[in-house]
Amino acid sequence: MEEVVIVGAGIAGLATAVALQKVGVRALVLERSKELRATGAALGLFANAWVALDALGVSDKLAALYAPFERGYITDVKTKSTREVHYSPSNRTGAQTRVVHRKVLLEVLAEELPPNSIRFSSKISSIETQVEDGSSICIVTLDDGTIIKSKAIIGCDGVHSIVARWLGLRPPVYSGRSAVRGLSVFPKGHGFDHGHAIQQFVDVGTRAGFIALNDKELYWFFGAACPPKGMEKGADPEVIQKEVMEIATKDFPPVYLDVVRHADLSTLTWAPLMFRYPWDILFGNLAKSNVTVAGDAMHPMTPDLGQGGCSALEDAVVLGRHLGDSISKHGKLETRDIGFAIESYAKERRLRAATLITASYLSGWVQQDGSSRLTRFLRDVFYGNLLTRAVRSIAQYDCGRLPSASSLPSRESEIST
Question: Does the keyword Secreted apply (predicted)?
Answer without folding.
Answer: no
